[in-house]
Design goal:
Elements: H1 3-13, E1 18-20, E2 24-30, H2 34-39, E3 54-60, E4 66-75, E5 78-84, H3 88-96, E6 105-108, E7 112-118, E8 132-136, E9 143-149, H4 150-162, E10 166-167, H5 170-180, H6 215-224, E11 229-235, E12 246-249, E13 252-261, E14 264-270, E15 277-283, E16 286-293
Parallel strand pairs: 1-10
Antiparallel strand pairs: 1-7, 2-5, 2-6, 3-4, 4-5, 7-9, 8-9, 11-14, 11-16, 12-13, 12-15, 13-14, 15-16
Length: 299
């Protein structure tokens, strides 16, 4: 599928309903101490989180760099952590390092998967006990992830298809993600990321809770510091652009592309480049023009 087709599809789908199966890993923390254990580590405040409710959160390193980005849903006395596919084992290993005299088991659950839905409300099948619905804010309106066994997700997807909801493929979903400015682990986010660089502090960090892992750096930047680069959206991209392409202003490299799809891109750009700004994208064998813009507001 070429970029123009992706752009057309994503633009048409922007205000419509759809389902997708993005790659996701689900990590479950269970046991009497599960929630208090996580409360001491993750960036979101879990106090007052009710059964069936969810929140976006981060796990940081002690140095304040990103370990994992996920949505955390409370399911009884357990927590389901839903994050980017292929990174669940890393999250399990990171949490296991801090299990000292606590009654909690942390497991990657390959039997659980995710159906991403953009529709006015979850399907009836999503109200069953074996399924959890996790709201996921996007700039053009909330959507949600239905998390549960694959068979349950198949039933939910069939129910939505019967109501006229379109199932989209991975390429179109990726174009929608880039257009929406949603950062992704392994692309925009990695072990070098400081939360403020990707604006993760907007909805994934509590500055009023007690201590959490990596709090010192994040709070210091919030109160009296700054980061040297920001995640930006690249629009009006002419032609196909590979990941890693340089963002150039004049003769100076000021950033790099992290994702590109559907005539748009995401990338980190030095903070002195104020959006909107016209830039050149360069890579081995090609170049293209683009405009650096701010990420859409979410929520």
């Amino acid at each position: 599928m070429n970029d123009s087709t992706l752009l057309n599809d994503s633009t048409l789908l922007k205000d419509s309903t759809w389902t997708a199966r993005p790659p996701r890993d689900v990590v479950v923390a269970a046991g009497p101490d599960a929630l208090s254990f996580l409360q001491s580590l993750v960036s979101a405040d879990l106090d007052g989180l009710g059964d069936g409710q969810s929140v976006r959160s981060l796990l940081l390193t002690p140095q304040g760099k990103l370990e994992a980005d996920f949505h955390l849903a409370r399911v009884g006395d357990a927590a389901w952590l839903v994050g980017e596919g292929g990174h669940g084992s890393q999250l399990v290993a990171a949490l296991e390092r801090f299990k000292i005299r606590v009654k909690v088991e942390v497991d990657l659950r390959p039997d659980l998967a995710v159906l991403a839905v953009r529709a006015p409300e979850p399907p009836a099948r999503a109200r069953a006990d074996d399924v959890v619905v996790v709201p996921v804010p996007w700039p053009d309106g909330d959507r949600f992830d239905v998390v549960g066994p694959t068979a349950a997700l198949d039933e939910a997807e069939a129910e939505l298809a019967g109501a006229g909801v379109t199932a989209i493929d991975a390429d179109v979903y990726e174009a929608l993600r880039v257009e929406a400015g949603i950062p992704r682990m392994g692309f925009e986010l990695d072990e070098k990321t400081i939360p403020q660089e990707a604006f993760l502090d907007r909805d994934a960090v509590s500055f009023s809770k007690g201590c959490f892992l990596g709090q010192e750096l994040v709070c210091r930047i919030d109160t009296r510091g700054h980061v040297n680069k920001y995640l930006r959206r690249l629009t009006n991209v002419a032609g196909g652009v590979p990941r890693g392409a340089e963002v150039v202003v004049g003769d100076k490299v000021v950033g790099a592309v992290t994702s590109a799809a559907g005539g748009m891109g995401l990338g980190y750009v030095r903070r002195e480049i104020e959006p909107p700004a016209d830039v050149m994208l360069r890579w081995d064998g090609g170049e293209a023009t683009a405009t650096v813009t701010s990420l859409p507001l979410i929520g």
